[in-house]
Amino acid sequence: MTSLDKPARAGQDAPTDEAGGDSPAGRAASQAALLEAFGGLRGLVETTVPGLVFILMFTIDKDLKTSAIAALVLSGLLGLARLLRKDTLKHAFGGVFGVGVGVVFAMMTGNAKDFYLPGMLYGLGLALAYLITAAAGVPLLGLILGPAFKENLSWRTRNPGRKRAYVKASYAWGFIFLGKSAILFPLYWWADPTKFGWVTVALKIPPLLLAVYLTWIFLAKAPPPINVIAEMEAEEAAEKAAEEAAKAARAADGAAVDGAAVDGAPAEPEGTGPRHRR
Question: What is the pLDDT of residue 86?
């Protein structure tokens, strides 16, 4: 068992994150960490705008190639802007990759609806992953948010109340994404590309915001996260201090031994000094 999820000693309160709890600073820090874990408000917009541009242009001129190129170029510009701002590579290339795969699907089949098919399959797979991991007691949301809250996997064994919150939140994400899939997949077969595209874009942000909101509700009622990063830093500092103390003690013992040897040296017998030697 690692320091990330080791249980606290009996009679010892589990250390918590200073930003946790019900304080205004704790709530603000938790909200910021939660939003940042999913790309923030900017990330939500960036994942929606390319699809919006695609369906808007396709509605106007019905040209699949032009619509796909416009969406891909816009996504690339958004990713480039992320890089110029020295943002994370995940956020910079995540949207570009998703749009690129959608463009490839649509261009290969000649069907504008296939631009959204990779995202639909990803959403369905994600829904199943949330539900399965929650049922298995290792909620996917805890694996995603643990590093964001600096608790890593400590919630598994040291913070049962927080684990229950992650399980509930993972179920919420799973059922919300599953409901979205239940709407989109029948429309994929029955609706025309234009109507299907607008419905897909309309369902992009609201379900995600609902899932994030429910996650915030569940975590707000749970115990605060255990900051295992601070724990490890404190352990390293304590080990370093102990090593320095041990070195100082050894140096003091060596000095004491040398002093005792000098004080205890035997004196020369009388009459044996240099003046009495002939």
Answer: 75
Write out the chain in H/E/C secondary structure. CCCCCCCCCCCCCCCCCCCCCCCHHHHHHHHHHHHHHCCHHHHHHHHHHHHHHHHHHHHHHCCHHHHHHHHHHHHHHHHHHHHHCCCCHHHHHHHHHHHHHHHHHHHHHCCHHHHCHHHHHHHHHHHHHHHHHHHCCCCHHHHHHCCCCCCCCHHHCCCHHHHHHHHHHHHHHHHHHHHHHHHHHHHHHHCCHHHHHHHHHHCCCHHHHHHHHHHHHHHHCCCCCCCHHHHHHHHHHHHHHHHHHHHHHHHHHHHHHHHHHHHCCCCCCCCCCHHHCC
Q: pTM above the 0.90 mark?
A: no
Q: What is the mean pLDDT of each run of 10 residues along the chain (278 residues)?
A: 46 43 55 69 80 92 92 88 74 78 93 94 96 96 90 92 96 97 96 93 91 91 87 83 82 69 56 52
